[in-house]
Specification:
heterotrimer; A mainly alpha; B alpha/beta; C mainly alpha; A: mainly alpha; two-stranded antiparallel sheet; 11 helices; 72% helix; B: alpha/beta; Rossmann fold; four-stranded parallel sheet; 12 helices; 41% helix; elongated
C-alpha cells in the first residue's frame, strides 16, 4: 500500500496542480458570471499564451516569465474586443447556446492557427532549472512547479483584491449579481462586462505561462484542459469565483491522490463524475453559486 | 402554410447541390500507360497528432524515390509518389487508400505511419489485393489480423525491441542482477509493445514488477507517475515512450532525484534534440533502435550520403524505415518484372514472402504474418553521445551497468 | 411573443409565398410538387451508386450519407428544443462500440447487434439526459462536451473490454462481398436509415409532441407555465435522438470495420454535426441533409486545398463563427431570403438594413404580422388556415 512518503508527495503535487486549476477555472467562471457565457476557447487561449511563452524563450531567448509583460495586456485587450465585437452581437434569447458555438469556433481557429504556425510538434521550454528541486519533509518540490503555483496564487490574489476592494470590482460584482439592477444604479454594464472578459482572458495568459514552465504543449492540448475546467466551475457553482477556486483545489488534490491506486487515466474521470453528480444532486454547485440553478 | 413553400425552396436547393456534388465527383482518374511512370500511392499523417513522424516518413520516401530515379528508375520507368494527407485520422486514411487505388489507379501502395492507422489502411489494400509493405506498424496486433499482403519493413516488431537487453540482464551474475522494475508506457500499441515485451521476459525470469503505469497519449504532467516510480525505488525503470512523453517522464523522475540502476526508454533518446530537451542529464540512458547511420550495410552509405545532401541532416529511424519500405517494394518489382494493379500484385506478395531483401537496416525476411524476424540494437548515452552497446557484434562501446547518476 | 429569431424566419420565408397562397394554399398542386421533389431527391440518392465512377466516390458518398444521418439525428434535439449538444459524437461512438462489442463478445448477428446497441444507447441516454436536461442551456452543453471526454477516457482505458488504443476490429456482416459490393450494400443501408430518420422527424414535426417541443425552443418558462411537461418532452426527444445517432454509429462501425476510441469519441464529430445542421437550417426537415452535403464536400475541398496544414480547422472554425454570428437560422435560408429580397426589393428582408430602418420596420412588422406570428409561434407555420 502507498507509503506515507508517496502520499505526502502526491498531496504536494495535487496542491500545486490545484493552484493552476483554480486560476484557470476562476477566469472561466468569471465569464459565466458576467455574461452567462461558457467560454470554450478559454483553454485555447491558455495554450496560445503557453506557445507565446515558449516562443519568446526559444526564439528570443527571453525568460518565459517575462513574456507575460506582453501577453497579459494583449489578452486583456483580446478579451475586451471579444466581448464587445463578437459576443455582444449575439441575440440575448439564444446567447448561452450560440456563445458556446462561437467560442468553440474560436477555439478551433486558434488550434488550427497554432498548428499552422508552430506545427503539431510537442514543445517544451528547456529551462536551466527545469529539473531542479528541493526537499521538504521527504517530498521533492520541483522549482518550476512552485513558480507556476506562485504565479497562480499571485494572480488569484490580485483578482480577489480587484473584485473586493476596488470600485471596479464592486461594479463587476453588481453586474454579475443582477445586471439590470446594476444598470439602474448607473453602472455601465456593457463596459464593465468587456473589462471583466479582459480580466478573464488575462488569467489565461498568466495560466498559460505557468503551464508552459513545466509541461509539454501542442495545439490540441486545450481539449485536455477544458473538460476538467468546466467540471470545476459546475461543481463550484457557475459564476462563483471563490467556489471555482475551492472546487479546483479539492478536485486537483483528489485527482492526484486517486492516481496512486487508479493510474493516470482513471484518475481523470473524477472530474466528470463530480460534474455528473453535481448536476444530478445539486445543480447549483457545492460552493455557492446562486446563479447556476437557472442555467 | 409558409412551411410548405419553404420546403419547396429547400428541395430545389437540395437538387442543385446533389447535382453539383455528382458533377464534382465525376472528374479525375489516373493514367497508367505502360511507358509512363510507376505511381506509388501513400497516405501519411502530415497534419494532426502524428504529423512529426509522418513528415519523417515522407522525407524517407522522397529520398528513396529520388535515389531510385537517379539510378534509372524501376523496370526502366521513373518512380512517382502520390502522397495524400490523412490528418492522423483513421477515417481519412481509409478514404485516402480508397482514392489512391480506386480513383487514382496507382500502380503500388505503401504504408502510412503509426499502428493505429496501419491496420485500417492495410485492410483496404488487402481487400483490393494490393501488396502492402509498411514502415510503421510495429505492434504485434498488426500481425494478428490475418493480413496476407502485409509486410513490416523494419528489423523487429515492438515487443522484440529489447530482446538483446533482456538477454544481457538475465545473463548477469546473480548478485548483480536487478531484482525489481518499474514500467510506464504510453497507451499506444507501439509504445506499450516495447515496454511490455521486456516486462514479459523479465517477469518470467523473476524480476518483480513494482509499478506498471499506463498513461494516455495526451498526458503532459508526469509528476504523479514519477512520484510512484520514485517511491517504489525499483532497480530498473522502463519507459514505453514516444518522444515528448519520454522527455517529460525523465525530467519528472530527475526532479524527484530518483536514481535507478538502469533506465531504458523507447524512441525518445534516439531523437537528435533529446539531450538538450532534458538539460543534458542523459548519462546512461538506454534505448533500442532499428537503425544506425553508420551501419555497415551496402546501401546504407548511399542513403545517408544522398539523404544528407537532399535534406541537410542525417536520416533518423522513421526516414530509414520509409526508405527500407521503398527498397523492399523495389526488390520485388525488379524480381517479378511488373508493377500494376491486378494479378501482378499477388506475384509481388509471393516474392516478398519467400525472399530476403538487403536494406539499409540489414537483410530482412518475414514470417507468414508479415512479421520481420530480427531484433533491435540497444544504444546507450555515454559521455554525451549515444552509442550502440548491444548486440556484442555491432557494439561501439560497452554497456555501463549500473548506470551512473543522471 | 415570438422570439427574435422566429420573426426573422417568418420574414425570410413569407416573401416566397404569394399573398394568395398565404390565405388559401393551392394545396393539391403544392402537394404534388412536394411529393415529386421528394421522389426526385430519392431517385437522385438511390441512383448515385450506379453513377459513381469508382468505389472511392461511392465510399465518399457513404461518408456524406453518414454525416446526413448524424446531423438529422442531432436535429431532433437541436432543431425541436433549441438545446445544442456538442456531444452527439459520443453517442455515435457508443453505438459503434456497442454494435462491435455485441458482435465480437456476445456473438450476436451483425444487424441484431446494431439494433440492440442502438436501444442500449437510447437507454443510456435516459440518465445522461436526466443529468443534462434538468438544468438549462449552459450546463447541458457542458455535460455534452464532458460526455465525449469521459467516454474517450473510459474506452481508452478499459482496454480489456474495448481493446483500448489497439482498436477494435468489427467483423464484416457480409464476409463474402468484395469491397465495391460492400460499399454498395452499405450505401443503400445508410440511405434507408436516412429515410427513416427523416420520416421520424417529419412525423414529430406534425404532432402535438412536436408543438410542445417547439414551444420549449421559443420560451421554456412559458411552455412550462402553459402546462407542457417540458422535462419529459426534452428527455423523450433526447432519447429518440440518441437512438438514431446510435444506429448511425453502429452502421458506420459495421461498414468501416475498425474502431479507435480517439476517432470515435472525438469532439470534432459532434461539432461537425452542429455545423451541418446549423448551416442547413435547424428548423427544416432537409436542413441537416443539405448541411451534410455542403460540409462533406467542403471538408474534402479544404483537405485538397490546404492539405498539409492545420488550416482546415481554421476554416471550420471561421465558418462556424460566421454562421453563428450572421446566419443562426442557417446559411441557405439566409441566401434564400437574400434572393427573395433581390427579386422583390419592396419586401426587403430585415437583414442588412441600418439600425434605424430596422427599428421602424420591426415596429411596422409587429403590427402588421400579429396574426401570422401567433400561428408561427404555436406551430412554426404548421397550423392550417
Amino acid at each position: 500500500m502507498p507509503s506515507g512518503a508517496l502520499l505526502f508527495q502526491s498531496v504536494i503535487l495535487g496542491l500545486l496542480l490545484g493552484g493552476l486549476y483554480a486560476l484557470l477555472a476562476a477566469g472561466l467562471t468569471l465569464y459565466f458570471g458576467i455574461m452567462r457565457v461558457v467560454m470554450i476557447a478559454h483553454s485555447a487561449f491558455l495554450i496560445l499564451a503557453a506557445y507565446l511563452a515558449w516562443w519568446s524563450h526559444s526564439r528570443l531567448g527571453v525568460d518565459p516569465l517575462l513574456s507575460m509583460i506582453v501577453t497579459v495586456p494583449l489578452f486583456f485587450g483580446f478579451g475586451v474586443l471579444l466581448q464587445r465585437m463578437l459576443l455582444a452581437r449575439l441575440r440575448p434569447v439564444t446567447l448561452t447556446m450560440m456563445s458556446v458555438l462561437l467560442t468553440f469556433a474560436i477555439a478551433l481557429t486558434i488550434e488550427g492557427l497554432l498548428g499552422y504556425v508552430f506545427t503539431g510538434t510537442q514543445r517544451r521550454i528547456q529551462l536551466g532549472y527545469g529539473s531542479a528541486s528541493f526537499g521538504l519533509f521527504g517530498a521533492r518540490i520541483a522549482v518550476v512547479k512552485l513558480i507556476a503555483f506562485g504565479l497562480a496564487a499571485v494572480a488569484l490574489l490580485t483578482l480577489y483584491l480587484l473584485m473586493k476592494k476596488t470600485t471596479f470590482g464592486w461594479a463587476l460584482r453588481a453586474t454579475i449579481q443582477h445586471r439590470d439592477a446594476a444598470r439602474l444604479v448607473g453602472i455601465e454594464t456593457e463596459r464593465i462586462a468587456g473589462y471583466g472578459f479582459g480580466i478573464g482572458l488575462a488569467t489565461a495568459a498568466v495560466g498559460g505561462t505557468a503551464l508552459a514552465l513545466d509541461t509539454t504543449i501542442y495545439p490540441s492540448l486545450h481539449w485536455h484542459w477544458i473538460g476538467p475546467l468546466m467540471a470545476i466551475i459546475v461543481v463550484g457553482g457557475l459564476g462563483s469565483v471563490p467556489g471555482a477556486a475551492m472546487a479546483a483545489m479539492v478536485l486537483g488534490l483528489t485527482q492526484s491522490l486517486l492516481q496512486i491506486p487508479l493510474g493516470t487515466t482513471w484518475a481523470q474521470t473524477i472530474f466528470y463524475l463530480a460534474l455528473f453528480a453535481t448536476l444530478a444532486f445539486r445543480p447549483q454547485g457545492f460552493f455557492g453559486g446562486r446563479l447556476a440553478q437557472r442555467f | 402554410m409558409t412551411t410548405r413553400y419553404r420546403r419547396m425552396q429547400w428541395m430545389t436547393a437540395l437538387g442543385v447541390t446533389m447535382t453539383l456534388a455528382l458533377g464534382a465527383c465525376g472528374g479525375g482518374s489516373g493514367e497508367s500507360a505502360a511507358g509512363g511512370p510507376i505511381v506509388i500511392g501513400i497516405s501519411l499523417p502530415l497534419t494532426g497528432d502524428f504529423s512529426e513522424p509522418g513528415k519523417g516518413v515522407q522525407r524517407g520516401y522522397e529520398a528513396w524515390a529520388k535515389i531510385t530515379n537517379e539510378n534509372g528508375g524501376l523496370l526502366g520507368r521513373q518512380v512517382e509518389l502520390k502522397i495524400l494527407d490523412d490528418q492522423s485520422n483513421a477515417d481519412r486514411v481509409v478514404a485516402d487508400y480508397e482514392q489512391l487505388i480506386g480513383q487514382e489507379q496507382v500502380d503500388l501502395v505503401v504504408g502510412p505511419f503509426s499502428t493505429r492507422l496501419v491496420v485500417p489502411a492495410a485492410r483496404v489494400a488487402e481487400e483490393y489485393g494490393m501488396l502492402f509493405v509498411e514502415p510503421a506498424g510495429a505492434a504485434k496486433e498488426v500481425f494478428e489480423q490475418g493480413f496476407k499482403n502485409l509486410f513490416y519493413a523494419a528489423p523487429a516488431v515492438a515487443n522484440d525491441h529489447y530482446n538483446h537487453l533482456a538477454d544481457y540482464l538475465l545473463a548477469l551474475p546473480e548478485d548483480q542482477k536487478p531484482k525489481t522494475a518499474a514500467y510506464a508506457a504510453m497507451d499506444d500499441p507501439f509504445a506499450q509493445g516495447t515496454a511490455y515485451g521486456l516486462k514479459e521476459k523479465l517477469e518470467a525470469a523473476g524480476i518483480r514488477t513494482l509499478v506498471n503505469e499506463v498513461y494516455p497519449p495526451n498526458t503532459t504532467d508526469f509528476g504523479s507517475i514519477a512520484a510512484k516510480i520514485a517511491a517504489s525505488k525499483a532497480d530498473l525503470v522502463v519507459g514505453g515512450s514516444q518522444y515528448q512523453d519520454g522527455v517529460n517522464l525523465i525530467v519528472a523522475l530527475q526532479q524527484l532525484q530518483y536514481q535507478p540502476k538502469l533506465a531504458a526508454f523507447s524512441t525518445a533518446p534516439t531523437n537528435p534534440e533529446f539531450a538538450a530537451a532534458i538539460g543534458n542529464k542523459t548519462e546512461g540512458i538506454l534505448s533500442p533502435t532499428g537503425y544506425a547511420q553508420d551501419a555497415p550495410y551496402p546501401s546504407n552509405q548511399e542513403f545517408v550520403q544522398k539523404y544528407t545532401a537532399q535534406f541537410g541532416a542525417a536520416p533518423e529511424e522513421d526516414e530509414a524505415n520509409a526508405y527500407t519500405t521503398g527498397q523492399v517494394v523495389a526488390a520485388a518489382v525488379t524480381a517479378v518484372g511488373c508493377a500494376e494493379q491486378g494479378e501482378c500484385q499477388q506475384k509481388l506478395v509471393e516474392w516478398v514472402r519467400n525472399n530476403t531483401v538487403e536494406t539499409v537496416v540489414g537483410p530482412l525476411s518475414w514470417d507468414e504474418t508479415g512479421k520481420p524476424k530480427g531484433a533491435h540494437m540497444i544504444q546507450q548515452w555515454l559521455g554525451g553521445e549515444i552509442k550502440i552497446v548491444l548486440p556484442a557484434d555491432a557494439k561501439e562501446a560497452d554497456l555501463v551497468y549500473p548506470k551512473p547518476a543522471w | 411573443m415570438p422570439s427574435a429569431s422566429e420573426r426573422t424566419m417568418a420574414a425570410a420565408a413569407t416573401p416566397g409565398a404569394t399573398p394568395a397562397a398565404r390565405v388559401s394554399a393551392p394545396r393539391p398542386v403544392g402537394r404534388i410538387v412536394q411529393v415529386a421533389l421528394v421522389l426526385v431527391l430519392a431517385a437522385g440518392v438511390l441512383s448515385f451508386p450506379a453513377l459513381a465512377p469508382n468505389p472511392y466516390i461511392l465510399s465518399a458518398g457513404i461518408v456524406v450519407l453518414n454525416y446526413a444521418v448524424l446531423s438529422t439525428s442531432w436535429n431532433f434535439v437541436g432543431g425541436f428544443t433549441g438545446y445544442i449538444s456538442l456531444g452527439h459524437g459520443a453517442l455515435a461512438g457508443l453505438g459503434a462500440y456497442g454494435t462491435a462489442l455485441l458482435v465480437t463478445r456476445a456473438g450476436l448477428p451483425s444487424f441484431v447487434a446494431l439494433v440492440v446497441a442502438a436501444l442500449l444507447v437510447a437507454a443510456l441516454a435516459v440518465p445522461i439526459g436526466f443529468a443534462a436536461l434538468r438544468v438549462r442551456g449552459a450546463s447541458f452543453v457542458i455535460v455534452s462536451i464532458a460526455l465525449v471526454l469521459i467516454l474517450l477516457l473510459v474506452f481508452q482505458s478499459w482496454s480489456s473490454l474495448t481493446g483500448g488504443s489497439r482498436g477494435l476490429v468489427v467483423p464484416r456482416p457480409f464476409p463474402g462481398l468484395l469491397r465495391p459490393e460492400h460499399h454498395r450494400v452499405f450505401y443503400f443501408l445508410f440511405a434507408a436509415l436516412l429515410g427513416l430518420a427523416l420520416l421520424a422527424w417529419w412525423l414529430i414535426d406534425r404532432s402535438r409532441f412536436g408543438l410542445g417541443l417547439k414551444a420549449i425552443r421559443e420560451d421554456e418558462d412559458k411552455a412550462e407555465a402553459l402546462g407542457t411537461p417540458t422535462f419529459a418532452y426534452k428527455l423523450v426527444v433526447f432519447v429518440v435522438s440518441a437512438g438514431f445517432t446510435g444506429l448511425a454509429g453502429g452502421l458506420y462501425a459495421l461498414w468501416f470495420g475498425d474502431l479507435d476510441p480517439v476517432f470515435q469519441f472525438s469532439i470534432l464529430t459532434g461539432s461537425y454535426m452542429v455545423l451541418m445542421a446549423l448551416l442547413g437550417g435547424v428548423r427544416n426537415l432537409f436542413g441537416p441533409l443539405v448541411g451534410a452535403l455542403v460540409v462533406g464536400i467542403a471538408l474534402e475541398y479544404f483537405k485538397v486545398e490546404f492539405g498539409d496544414t492545420q488550416l482546415h480547422l481554421v476554416a471550420t472554425g471561421v465558418l462556424l463563427a460566421l454562421v453563428v454570428l450572421f446566419m443562426p437560422d442557417g446559411v441557405l435560408p439566409a441566401v434564400g431570403g437574400l434572393l427573395n429580397r433581390l427579386f422583390r426589393p419592396a419586401q426587403s428582408s430585415i437583414r442588412e438594413v441600418t439600425a434605424g430602418e430596422l427599428r421602424d420596420q420591426r415596429a411596422a412588422e409587429a403590427q402588421e404580422r400579429e396574426p401570422v406570428d401567433a400561428g408561427t409561434t404555436a406551430g412554426s407555420g404548421e397550423v392550417r388556415p
